[in-house]
Amino acid sequence: MATWGEFETAQPEFARRVRKLMTTRKHLTMATLRRDGSPRISGTEVQFDGADLRIGSMPGARKALDLRRDARVAVHGPTHDPAKGARWRGEAKIAGHAVELPSNDESHVFRIDIDEVVITQLNATRDRLVIESWNPTRGYRKDDRA
Hints:
CATH class: Mainly Beta
Helix content: 10-25%
Distance between the termini: 30 Å
Structural class: alpha+beta
Largest sheet: 9 strands, antiparallel
Number of domains: 1
Number of helices: 3
Strand content: over 45%
């Protein structure tokens, strides 16, 4: 796993594009695991705080309790439909593990340690899917799919 800062150092241009996609809107979607192992989808917001990527939660929220029990998490950035004839800017996803940090109140704050970062978009001619990804073990990869 890597911190956001380690990812930025390893892939600064890719990290800049991921951050831009993750912050185009305030509300994102995250997935956690329920007690029985089934997925839970929740809304979330992200904060980039120095070398950390963080999410917060209201006191006692189910998503926070999920993360305390099983730290695996995925965050999906907002996606936008392209204007007619315009290029689709794509979408960003981050998978990792949540580490709870001390909070000044009863709310929950988690740092996300990164397992993988992905941007999915279309190529310039809009006839192939382009998937860019990075993880701390294998580094950066770019794949085109028909």
